[in-house]
Amino acid sequence: MAADSGEPGTLRPGGRTARVRAAVLQAAGDVLAEGGLAALDLADVARRAEVGRTTVYRRWGTPAGLVADLLADMAEQSLPRTETGTLLGDLEANARLVQRTLADPRQGPLFKAVLAAAAFDPRTAAALHRFYEIRVGEWAPCVEQAVERGELPPGTDAREVVRAVSAPLYYRLLTTGLPLDRASADRAARSAAAAARAGAFVTPES
């Protein structure tokens, strides 16, 4: 169990409290997917979750506090990395996981809403940064192992390679009406792998 950081919604309790948290976060995610941050009203979330409004206001305080805890929970629940034994196989697994998430009828709109909210809400932005640091950190060892196997040059920035896999998929999601399919995911993985092999992500020596 994580220690209480003093931030609303950051305690990780068990029992009934955990069930209340799960119901509230599920409701919050539904609201975000349906209407974005502007629609995230704590009283409405409490009603949907069948939880007392006082409980929601006391534990999360603000919509931003609720979004922060939702992102923390999403990071905790995300699937672990897949290790295939090759750089390309690992990056394809990562890209396909991102693609499935962003193409999901609920998760895709939810991520769009959170990304939009982070542009003007500092607390949401901080929570989003923590979410992606956790996810990138989960997959970075796949790239580090590729360096150890000799597939990539020494000094390759593992985190930047992982980010390069996801970037084209988010760009496609946010700037086009084109579908996010497996072909898009595999193309992103191949491009990142080719760039990494060419040394594009080697950190310059200071």
TrEMBL record:
InterPro entries documented for this protein: Homeodomain-like_sf, HTH-type_TetR-like_transc_reg, HTH_TetR, Tet_transcr_reg_TetR-rel_C_sf, TetR_C
Domain of life: Bacteria
Domain HTH tetR-type: 18-78
Keywords of the record: DNA-binding, Transcription, Transcription regulation
Pfam family name, one: TetR_C_11
Cited Gene3D superfamilies: Homeodomain-like, Tetracycline Repressor, domain 2
GO molecular function terms noted in the UniProt entry: DNA-binding transcription factor activity; transcription cis-regulatory region binding
DNA-binding interval(s): 41-60
Name used for this protein in its record: Transcriptional regulator
Biological source species: Streptomyces mashuensis
